[in-house]
Amino acid sequence: MTATDFFNEGSSSRFYRGRDQVQSMDSPARELELEAFQKHVAERFQDLAAAQSYELLSMAWIRRLLDIFLCSLEEFKMILINNQRNHNRPPMDRYVSDFLERSIKALDVCNAIRDGIEQMKQWQKPLEIIICAIDNSQRSYGEGQFRRVKRALVDLAIAMLEEKDSSSAVPQRNRSFCRSKEAAKSFSQFMSRSWSLSRSWSAAKQLQAFSSSVVAPKSNEITSTNGLNVAVFTMNYLLLFVMWSLVAAIPFQDRGIVIHFCVSKQFQWAAPVVSLHDKIMEESKKRGRRNTCGLLKEIHDIEKCARNMNELTESMEFPLNEEKEMEVKKRVGELKVVYEEVKHGLDSLERHVRQAFHKIVRIRVEGFNTFDRRAND
């Protein structure tokens, strides 16, 4: 019998079920805490899954996803703190240790996400040139202005095309969310692989390795850990889904997103999570999105505006008539909206990713410190 046999479909009120009776846990408070965690995770993802289709994979949606992850991780940390006596004993110590080790992959993804965000910030320069060259406040347009626009469009296309080529050589990446070299050194024992991403680093391989190691707990394992390993499995799966979503959305080094996602819908949170996975995969298969450098909505908006602007510049005949001038003003107005969304949205998104990075670091440090104290007792 697998772990899913211990869950009712929909909103389960008990983790453990025999044939006809509910098996009591050691502590009613612990049972309520674990049930509340499952319920809260389910409610958060149900709310996220209810977003309109045009909101999916927007920067605002990604920030909401990261907020959900941070709230869930904090709740999970409190479960570990409240049950230290249990998670420091076999086999629970192995489940917690495995989670802390898997989180290294998440730290690598966060660092790579920062690289992707930095790359997107470079796209702002050609967008600024286009907007300044044919600003709506100008009374008339000349050939010189549109030559600048064409050059900027070429620069933008090259920059975005470089990100699409996941097999191209990528310079060694040494940026991270570490606040200082001293901080990096002090945390090196906990995340040595996370401060530098080599040319051979692959997001796809990281996610595939992660997904293959996340397995639902069996009934005897649930019993032996008093249900605590179900919380660990839930957090492992959320970590996998959040990192996969970031890889799907942001320009990435080798950002393959086809991985094995399989979880029983008898877990309360499974249905909305699987639904979101399916929606994102459907989005990746749409015409015009299959070869994009990222599924982020704002990337699609940039590509659409650039394409419209390029078509417009190719059909220019000077002097422009009134109809063409109106069309130019419309297109530059659309581009301004996208530019402002990207300019302000990227900074906020980067802050959220940084928060997730440091939250994972803290839970790793606290987790290993707990193991060390237990070993010395």
The tally of strands reads: 0
Roughly how much helix do the residues carry, as a percent range?
A: 55-70%
Mean pLDDT: 82
Helix and strand sequence: HHHHHHHHHHHHH
Shape: elongated
SS-derived structural category: mainly alpha
Spans where pLDDT lies below 50 across 5 or more residues: 1-25, 166-175, 179-195
Instruction: Evaluate the radius of gyration.
Output: 24 Å
Oligomer: single chain
Largest sheet: none
DSSP strand content:
under 5%
* Contiguous helical run count: 13
Give the termini distance in whole angstroms.
Answer: 37 Å
How do the helices and strands line up, and which of them pair or pack?
Blueprint: H1 28-49, H2 59-82, H3 84-87, H4 92-122, H5 124-133, H6 143-164, H7 181-186, H8 203-213, H9 219-224, H10 228-249, H11 270-284, H12 297-314, H13 322-376
Helix pairs in contact: 1-2, 1-11, 2-10, 2-13, 4-8, 4-10, 4-13, 5-6, 5-13, 6-12, 8-10, 12-13
3D structure, described in words:
It contains 13 helices and no strands. With 377 residues, the chain is mainly alpha-helical. α1 (28-49) packs antiparallel against α2 (59-82) and α2 (59-82) packs antiparallel against α10 (228-249). The longest helix is centred in the last third of the chain and has 55 residues, at 322-376. The protein is elongated and about 80 Å long. The protein starts with 27 loop residues before the first helix and ends with a helix.
Jot down its keywords.
disordered N terminus, mainly alpha, 377 residues
What's this model, at a glance?
This protein is an all-alpha fold and about 375 residues long.
